[in-house]
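Look over this today:
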Amino acid sequence: MQGYSIFLPSYTIGHHIYSEVSRITSQSGTQTVIIGGHKALAAAYGQLSEALAGSPISVLDTLYYGGECTFENVEKLAEQKAVQEADMIFAVGGGKATDTCKALGEQIGKPVYAFPTIASNCAGCTAVAIMYHEDGSFFRPNFLTKPPVHTFIDLDIIAKAPARYLWAGMGDTYAKYFEAEMSSRGEDLSHYVGLGVTISQMCLKPILAHGVQALKDNKAGIASKDLEEVVLAVIVTTALTSILVTKDRIIDYNTGLAHAINYGLTSFPEVEKNHLHGEIVSFGVLILLLVDKNYEMFEKMYTFSRQTGLPVRMEDLGLHQSDQPQVIAKALAMKDIDHNPYKITAEMMQEAFEELKKRVNAEGEQQ
């Protein structure tokens, strides 16, 4: 049997942690190029520049990543003189900026260090880049050899970011648990997939315990312990799960019905344009739990959605009940639901949508 390698995330989290950057990144050389989004660079560059002042690390240039994570932008960056001369790449920002840098690093063979400025997804610690077409539409996942060498998660910067990113990030994060648990149920799993599914529980538990308060603290700009627990779940735990359960790339334990529903909903351009990914996926989780007849957990997640303002109705996403057949048809066509413990049918989903509608109406009658 051939051996295999699994590279797991390495990270630093806390306050004023950029003081560690020079010591940790010096293993890769002394010259770097900083690449990120405009808002992210405005939020982090001052602290990062101050931390590097007087250190052996010199910044050759600071570049905009291009606005979309596309192979075209990767090619444009690869042609930049500073990128060619740098020993390493510092990726600053959210998912698209970070994924662009990761794809760039993989292509040109240079180490990447991540500096997430929001907690909306796990891009800062994953070994995959989600690639888009130039018009912003989804293209495909680009699986990479390894995650960033190290990820620097500054809680003070994230606490000052718009809370809507954490809000949506929580929905995408706990979906990872429900989808991994459902798609792997009853199977004899390999060590790494079993480890990933087990770890995925920590995509849910911290959010239920700390999510409501973390969101309040983020809105107030407070880098609290509750915020830290949720940020770790969103950025680190989800990435660990993703890396482990996608190792084989044969059976997909990394996605499921919640994401299929997401793609059904985003088949309407206004949903894709006006709502964040994790926000939409959180609605898909409610449908998943009703299809799975996991009513106890449905009540917990429905309550959490109501407490945090995550969507519980089609109307919350700008759609109407008349749009339901298209959502279901699109979801059924997605490969995300190919691997499940039972066949998911249109009838199952129709029933789940109706049950959710009744739950919302019953709550309205009680008020």
